[in-house]
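Glucosamine--fructose-6-phosphate aminotransferase (Isomerizing), pasting as requested.
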Amino acid sequence: MQTPTLMQREVEETPEAVARLLAQSGDQLQEAGRLLRDLDPRSLATIARGSSDHAATFFKYATEITTGLPLASLGPSLVSVYGTPLRLAGVAAVAISQSGRSPDIVALLEAARAGGARTFALVNVPDSPLSKAANLEIPLRVGPELSVAATKSFVASAVAAIAVLAHWREDAALLAAIEALPDRLAEALDTDWSAALEPCRTATSLYTTGRGPGFAIASEAALKMKETSILHAECFSGAEIVHGPVSLVGEGFPAFAFLVDDAARPGMQDLCRRLDGAGARLFAIGESPVGTRLPHAETGHPLTEPLSMILSFYRFAEALSRARGHDPDNPRGLRKVTETV
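Structure tokens follow.
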């Protein structure tokens, strides 16, 4: 029997990690929601990079769809390189980080607070510099993450972000879906994506695509392909992929489409038909009229469903890395740069 990789173990720990987050950081999640209700922000901002930035993108779409308020991603170089003073009175700024130690992420949150923002830190390492820069720390509580690829911390970050949103908006349906999520994530670990293994093992490039919250998940999936399988993967939104990128799709070109059960799904289904017509080897996560459908655990809510999709994808990415002859924990001798995530 093959010894489990660190990545495999950490992916399998995700349902328990999310349950721990909800149980042990529930007070902070509720407090963040109350603070946002009291602030009634005119806009929001996020501060993150890498997988954490994909969690921030997920939060962006969830927030904008739910509230109609704009959410901007602030580039760390605004402060660390350009030294720009920020003017963020009436804004809520949310920083997301596994380590909470990246100097430019910390500096940007400090500048946001100095510029008048109410600041929140979603961070896995307690009492980190980022935590100290925030008005409120929300511990992710996922435990050590030692593989190169961030997995359980990504899912926990996204769960924490939408839990803050749910408490802020007092959204009973979303809160109930989040509460049930650990069980749905456990189901996601049992899905079989082996149909995609051989086409991706021999591929030199592929696309991932989605819209809204599904785009954030597709972005994370593309990163994991590059990070763990040394496989060129690009993510485009379902609206943008037809404006140029589709011209690279030929016979057998792998494409992963994340079709969340929301208002974007009919358009994504049309995109799937177009990719299929161009010759793509299409893998659909969600209901599609064409291609090979890869199973996922349905959660009953469009803001939790993408998280079951990405957990199934993580299981697949770990297997694909090994199939392509790499070590998922340390492909090509990379080391985990915890100070920058």
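Note for the archive: The two ends are 33 Å apart (CA to CA).
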